[in-house]
Amino acid sequence: xPTVAPLDIDGHCVAAVFLSDVPHFAFADGAVHRxxxxxxxxxxxxxxxxxxxxxxxxxxxxxxxxxxxxSVKPEGVVEELAAAxxxxxxxxxxxxxxxxAYGAGKSAFVRFKDGKVKEFQHPRTVExxxxxxxxxxxxxxxxxxxxxxFPATDGKPTELEWAGAHTGVTFSPDGNFLVTTMQENxxxxxxxxxxxxxxxxxxxxxxxxLSWSARGKWLASSGAPAAIVWPFQAKDGxxxxxxxxxxxxxxxxxxxxxxxxSEEVVAIGYEDGMVIAARFQDAKEVMLRRxxxxxxxxxxxxxxxxxxxxxxxxxxxxxxxxxx
Length: 324
Description:
Elements: E1 3-8, E2 13-19, E3 22-27, E4 31-35, E5 39-43, E6 48-54, E7 59-64, E8 68-73, E9 77-83, E10 89-94, E11 100-104, E12 107-111, E13 117-121, E14 128-131, E15 138-149, E16 158-171, E17 177-182, E18 187-191, E19 196-200, E20 210-212, E21 218-221, E22 227-231, E23 244-246, E24 254-259, E25 265-270, E26 275-279, E27 285-289, E28 296-301, E29 307-312, E30 316-321
Antiparallel strand pairs: 1-30, 2-3, 3-4, 4-5, 6-7, 7-8, 8-9, 10-11, 11-12, 12-13, 14-15, 15-16, 16-17, 17-18, 18-19, 20-21, 21-22, 22-23, 24-25, 25-26, 26-27, 28-29, 29-30
């Protein structure tokens, strides 16, 4: 049985990551806690709404109700990167060459390494942001679809339309597909070469967590009493193919997923706080953590692939060591 080192904090955990191998937990009140020779805390946003792990630059990017974007680096170094006045920043993304993106109201902003900021306006609120895996390109999730921009140029954006509210967005690791979470219980996707649609529906709840497998062959998702894992090996993605259903536990909903950095394995967090690992090939399961106090809201593997940081909706956090 893996060992669990718990950290109980009062509040909602938005992100749990490793910065220079030190576990960091970002909370909705803007506090970022870390386990670094004891429990230490720094303050980022006044009301934190979004946080993303910038692995390439060993930092956590946060945005919040105070209209500010912060970088949190190892040893508690906090730096304000951008501000959007009184508008809430509800989406952030980390890109190449230390670029970041953030959404405030109907505008998406890209801040380049040199501090220059470029604004992209949209007819409706910016709900989600993602950088493409190669090149300087961003995707914006919005009402009735997604928009693709090339921030380094003044080229015309690409509009991908699909009726409904799109709340989050992700590129496949090879850059061939774009997938959005929706306000309804579904995912929607586009094959970027020809804008062919991909409908991924049938979920009993909203999908709030997505994770690509190491080589991008699979996309794991929450929103059901199992991790729903869509196959993306074929040129048309999952169309015409059934997803895997891993870690089914009666009516207990999956709330968070995190694919292993190199193996075809996914860590699955549930609404009752349990965490398991499941293998794609044969659906074999290993329990990593027994049920806790709240729904799992954050899961991240460390670079050594032996520890898993987790956080919950009620501050029930910790580190799972799978080699113990």
